[in-house]
Amino acid sequence: MTAQPQLDAAAPAAFAFHVAARDGAARTGEIRMPRGVIRTPAFMPVGTAATVKGMYPDQVRALGADVVLGNTYHLMLRPGAERIARLGGLHRFMNWPHPILTDSGGFQVMSLSQLRKLGEEGVTFRSHIDGAKHVLTPERSVEIQNLLGSDIVMQLDECVALPCEEKVAEKAMRLSLRWAERCKAAFGEHPGRALFGIVQGGEVPHLRVESARALAAMDLKGYAVGGLAVGEPQDVMLAMIETVEPHLPREKPRYLMGVGTPDDIVKAVARGIDMFDCVMPTRAGRHGQVFTRFGRMNLKNAKHAEDPRPIDPQSACPAANSWSRAYLHHLVKAEEMLGKMLLTWVNLAYYQELMAGLRAAIAAGRLADFIAETQAGWQRGEPA
User: Fold this and answer.
1) How would CATH label the architecture of 16-278?
2) 30, 40, 123, 378: which could form a disulfide with 295 (CB 3.0–4.6 Å)?
3) 103 an active-site residue?
């Protein structure tokens, strides 16, 4: 019988963030909380429906993940937050005894739900699963996340698509600030857990600055930069990070939501971001693509059909160093479940290896060299 998740007896009772080293704007450190330590910069595998698709929890942990992300929108619809609470909370439900961050559900409501209606009170929408009507307010979002038992709770915000008119970005930013105040009141005091605010403002610098300053004044435990990675060019995303970073408290963690490619991550780390999440490594794996130190590889391509080599013999990940490209190509073409699982494993392993490399480089004061070497490897590709 599988052991049930327990709190880490050696972990602190309160939420705390410690910066151990800096290299320019980049920093490495630890977020300490009752269920364990999150080493930063950190990549959080996405466990949308209480599972990281194609992976066992102990595999995810063994790769180096200290925290995973759960999704409020999907879990409130199925199986329901109240049911998960009755069953002992999300950690016990998915057998992940380590920290969990849950997003607020706002992004999914805006992008997935049908017939949504947004107002000051919150958003009314119909489920993409069965059409049932739901109301998500800041207070209800926090209540759901509390029922799940998440360690890091995100405020409800309005995320607009980019590009958009300045007046649209401004309206959404101001609504998100009012919702942040309501989320803070609803969350209350939980020393071992944290509520993070979300900076909005589209691609308008003065709106981003206003949002960051107002959220910083609320004295939350951490701050996310939201509303990016929604189709805008990378240079716009990076410019918004550079605009916001000076106005966020240096002693609090910073989270770039929904990002991204390995190149996005290394550039954002260099600009002071501590936490990331993205469906890209798991989604790409399910579609036959892997990320490696040689760059991206598509196992659907016919050139792999008779290639006996593994993806990367130097990788510590068994999926990358043990199975031939020919076999993986066969699995992908045959749409076998094992192929999706193995390539997801390869990708999550690479992402965690990249984060470990970034942490070590910052600690050694050689981040610029590490990024240059890493990018050169992607551009050069693998040896013939």
Assistant:
1) Alpha-Beta Barrel (3.20)
2) 378
3) yes
